Amino acid sequence: MLEGQFRNPSGCAISGVIDRSGRRMSGECMIRSISTMHDRSNGLGGGFAGYGIYPEYKDYYAFHLFYDGAASKKETEDFIGSHFDVAFQSAISTRKTAGVTDAPVIFRYFVLPDSRKLETRKLDEEEYVVRAVNKINTEIKGAYVFSCGKNMGIFKGVGFPEDIGRFYRLDEYEGYAWTCHGRYPTNTPGWWGGAHPFGLLDYSVVHNGEISSYDANRRWIEMYGYKCNLQTDTEVITYIVDFLLRKKKLTLGEVAKVIAASFWTTIDSKPEEDREQEILLRKMFPSLLINGPFSIIFGYTGGLMALNDRLKLRSMVVAERGERAYIASEECAIRAIEPELDYVRAPRGGEPVIFELNGGVK
Amino acid sequence: MEPLFVYPEYEIVRDRESCITCRVCERQCANEAHRYDEFNRKMLSDSTKCVNCHRCVALCPTHALKIKKSEDTYKLNANWTGDALNEIYRQAGTGGVLLSSMGNPKPYPVYWDRLLVNASQVTNPSIDPLREPMETTVYLGSKHAEIVRDERGRIKDTLAPQLKLKTPILFSAMSYGSISYNAHASLARAAEQLGIYYNTGEGGLHRDFYKYGKNTIVQVASGRFGVHPEYLEAAAAIEIKMGQGAKPGIGGHLPGAKITDAVSTTRMIPKGVDAISPAPHHDIYSIEDLRQLIFSLKEATAYKKPVIVKIAAVHNVAAIASGIARSGADIIAIDGFRGGTGAAPTRIRDNVGIPIELALAAVDTRLREEGIRDNVSILAAGSIRSSSDLVKAIALGADACYIGTAALVALGCHLCRSCHTGKCNWGIATQRPELVKRLNPEMGVERLVNLVTAWTHELQEMMGGMGLNSIEALRGNRLMLRGVGLTEKELEILGVKHAGE
Fold it and tell me: Within chain B, which residue ranges are assigned CATH 3.20.20.70?
């Protein structure tokens, strides 16, 4: 069975770094960070997201695709050709790596929506892209878009994360922020699309946990046009965040108060203004409360947000050193790449920790 | 014409050794099944008058009494059962419609008993409700709202009015008239203590109970009994009763004998005359008419109170609910065919409507398919017997459950299904003062509070086992359920997988 045909509970490791001055760093640091937590993965999935890695094509949507063969590639490229202007396309270069086998065909396209089609569809640009990606992923057999944001990219596959990083030659990319994920699924995912991070536009999510509210969240978000094809937590969390952030225009802090809402008893003890807003958010979006253990790093253009479930049922620490901020499942993953830290701390359950570029995206 | 003699279904058995002829049984039985034989100085019983309410059994100080199923039988016949014959004898004797009370007793499938609940193992932890908060608070009402911000960027409260429940349970509609003053007092005060709601049913609101208004749902039904501006104003929410699970498609009939002075005043109807609620609302012959009534009630109460529309679970329930969700209702209550009643034609009670489990699942699924599940909250009713039924109902998609029969049982009801006679020995379904006073509201409140508190604890235990700490995360979470012994079609309608999948 392939990922998406069953629920596949996973344990995981996550790590992330951002340089708030916008200075770019190679993906090597993330590979080193995640490899420290080797035992939190079992070789059945690893992946990375890098932000600011495509400065020369920063205004284009960077599509990363898996193909199972030439036929699906041809069909997808016909579709992309008729819906987008393609500025550049090529295979994503990889390196032969022990421990990484059965790789699909992996391609990258820098595209902009076809302006005439965009005009007739009466959609905003991002919605147009989201729908096109959904169409490829659900309708073209053997093709899968696993990254589609601007000036960012996701790289993932089946294997240990450090091997996947080397396979994708991430030491040759430079970004101002990185996240990564090592997966410990209880069943074999069967294909590379099931690995994480999961992305939508420039949003990416890495997550460690198994949410017990999954079906309540899934059935609710599917009312709003999302389709949870992979049946993974990460997928539904990404859609929820996308819905609240992009469609409902909530702030990141408000999103955190929806998905990791404070307990009613905590809300009751808050100052009146906060109390009113938090009660209102819980009343408005009760079905988007995410229950059960999770620790996520949410990546977006210009920032990273760390968030734990409200009981903090998964470990996660944050740290800073100068302009650099770090988030990881275990402190060792941070110390491995920055032994000297200004501080390291464990955020409380439900407390969003947001690190953003000082002067916007460079 | 007198019906043919039918041997009683249950027999009163008295242990002569234990009986001390204290005559408690005699005094307690409004049906006069017991009497004292002065001459022989012993108690006699007439089983033909017994409704098997167990009042005498429960109160006999020496436990000398029991009621057992009669062994008398006609020649056994799987088709022409004893019940079938007896009912014909009764109808041949009277020419009348058979009446009965409470819920459908027939052996239809109970889907609650074919659904199993999940628990966490290894990959995620179960949560201990004794250590961690376990939230059962739920807000009912439409969640559909645009995000609008004030000049300071704060989100404005554009939500429709909401009902806050501390636990996802409400007491079902039971009218004053069908049940007693003391039963109503118990329900109202228990609802207040528990932070939940009780429902007036179509019987108006007794003056004494206006003070419980913030925990009261008032009903507007086809007879419009007791409806006036102050009544609507007093309540936390208004329920339009379109149908009832125990008797879909028909109205109500409160016999004149139950219409005492107080009932007459409260209902605004003449004393001693049968009160008939028509089968339909005669101002609602279609969905657009319902919309008008919903908005009339909202206009009358300045859009400050949620409006509930209660329907019986019938074959086309999903489409009907979908129509209601687009008609301005804030909450839809669905009442399954095992729901109770104070009186219903037996044939209707036993043969009309569908099980709440299937109706609830079908409605929740349909509203989600149509993208309008957020427009309304859903209440499930019609035989929620325990906290596990409650858990399963919420996992199927209910926001909360109405309990009627369970609440009455907590007050002492023994399900003798004879409410329509008005001679309830437990002081519940009667207006006779000497019977009503048997139900002490102080104890009634305590028993109701105990029951709901116990169920809430059990709900929290099961939630914790599933790794949940908020009731919101259970609602519609059908992966938490598995069917056992169900057909593909049943599983499809319930939207759950089979155990082992």
Answer: 138-145+163-498
